Amino acid sequence: MTERLAVEGGTPVIAESIPGGMHGPSMIDEREIDAVTEVLRNGKLFRFVENSNVAAFEQEAAARLGVKHALMVNSGTSAIICALTGVGIGPGDEVILPGYTFIATAAAIVGVGAIPIIAEIDESLGLDPEDVERKITPHTKAIIPVHMQGVPCKIEKILSIAKQHNLKVVEDCCQCVGGMYNGKYAGTWGDAGAWSLNYYKVITCGEGGLVFSNDYDTYERAAFASEPGLPMWMSDSEWKNKPFSCQTYRAGEILGAIARVQLSKLDDILTHTRMLKKAFLAELSDNPKGYIRQHVDDPTGECGISAAIIIRDTELAKKYAEALQAEGLGAGTAYNEGFPDRHIYTYWDSILFKHSPNAAGYPWSDPRYKGEIEYSRDMCPQTLSILGRALRFGFNVNMQEEHARLMAAAINKVDAVLG
């Protein structure tokens, strides 16, 4: 006999609120404070100093990732811009990205003068490889797969497509710092990868980013893209590529000092969040009636910071959300009439309406672009259908296993009645 739902007067599964909080910010302690204090006391805030914290972070991150080159910049967006520049993307080029990611991914494409081509996601909530193939044109030069909410996308399939069409792959790992896919770090599969160290990411220094690659030419071009004065800090004998200057995305020593300490805590953070998600999945019904689980290619490698279920239809998803709220588990579909998830392409007005910082309408009206692209809010119906039925749940370092099990128990209870 099924238990009466709280929304109908029954007893809620979750009596006390699930602890909130972030990952990296919740782990800040005296180590970060001491690191920043040391930088302030010695007064060496610029990254080009002896014993630079930024340089040390780059080396430590590269060693962890198992890559040859890493460059710290001031944001995840900057990291993607530098990575795209590093692999040679520019005006006239099209770059495919998923319709479910923060607008910064699309903005980075526009930032290098290229054209964003928005593709569908699938039940992984990542880029749909089949739609990627449909979106390829003679002007396509790169793909940006995004590893959303700590879950690596179907990167091997995307790389196979890229290889067939001779396309570059820049992995957006801004929400998947430390995530792995089949034994390799997310971001190390393609031509270049990008981390974000924003406040809301797995580890943080407030704002910051990292671009990394095994290819020296990609790294050096990314470095030139990040620092217009860099050619003046280097001798001609150090250059392998013709130096150029554009924007400044340089990170400072305070950011580097915090990032180094946070990187040392990454294992602790991911061990905890992965434990939470494992407990959640173990408690979750193996035979749900009204939903399917988010597809995850490699459950052992994901960060464990989120989970999603995809309900059978939109109206039922609304009922699940309402019922779960009453059970004490905050829930809502990713795409709905309430507070919008800003990670969905439908809210990227500056992209959809081709807003430009200049009257020329750059980059869409650039004469070097020979293609045609029109955007609309309904251009990716599969994406909107999935996100209109997807309920997402987060895990953080302030939670314990019992919280994760209660979350799953609430879902089980609602599914038994409504499914």
Q: What's the short version?
A:
Helix content is 37%, strand content 12%.
What does this structure look like?
The protein is of the alpha/beta class and 419 residues long. Helix content is 37%, strand content 12%. The chain is built from 14 helices and 12 strands. The protein has a 7-stranded mixed β-sheet, sandwiched between helices. Strands 10-11-12 form a 3-stranded antiparallel β-sheet. The radius of gyration is 22 Å and the shape is globular. The mean pLDDT is 95.
| Unreliable residue runs | none
| Number of E-type strands | 12
The percentage of residues in β strands lies in: 5-15%
Which word captures the global form?
Answer: globular
Largest sheet: 7 strands, mixed
Structural class designation: alpha/beta
How are the strands of the biggest sheet laid out side by side?
1-9-8-5-4-2-3
What is the gyration radius calculated from CA atoms?
A: 22 Å
Run of helices and strands: HHEHEHEHEHEEEEEHHHHEEHHHEH
The total of helices stands at: 14
Mean pLDDT: 95
Q: In whole angstroms, how far apart are the ends?
A: 15 Å
Percent helix range: 25-40%
